[in-house]
Model the fold of this input.
Amino acid sequence: MPPTVAQIIAPYEYQPENVERIAFRTVQPPITILEPNPVWPQRFEEVKERIQNALGEIVIDIAHSGSTSDATDEISYVKLLEEAGFQFLLREPKWHQHRFFVENWSGAYHVNLHVWGPDSPEVVRHRIFRDWLLRSPEDLQLYAKVKREAAEQSAIAGDSMMDYTQRKDKTIQDILGRAFRDMGYIQ
Done:
């Protein structure tokens, strides 16, 4: 059953006690924000093909956020993704059965791979956010600015990736609010 509007607009609140750490990144790259690169769409297609080849029929969709038929059925996909070059870092069962992987650092590219079940409102939220940024140059610039500032502050403080992410949260919620209003989800 697809998520409801109420589920889609409900903000996510990070709760570290609900995270089950599987592993740590084998390489902790510095958080850097790069300018858009015209090769990224091709790179996405390469990664998408690698994931599709590894998982086959159990994949429902692969986008900037992917999903499998059952995120809790780790036996069906974790080993396959690891063999395809992804490291399983954590699971968040209380956040729509979220699983998180990173591409093994190759020095040239870095891929974050989120796995949710097909009915997760988070998949919809990520797509709404992406699509809104593509239609709203002002919010795209704002988000890029906040990402750069968060990366700089995290580098100075020696913070983790989660600290960097949390520095962006308010801006992400504000941008999503504008997107939700535009869609008629909220007033």
Q: What stands out?
A: The radius of gyration is 17 Å. Residues 161-183 form the longest helix (23 residues).
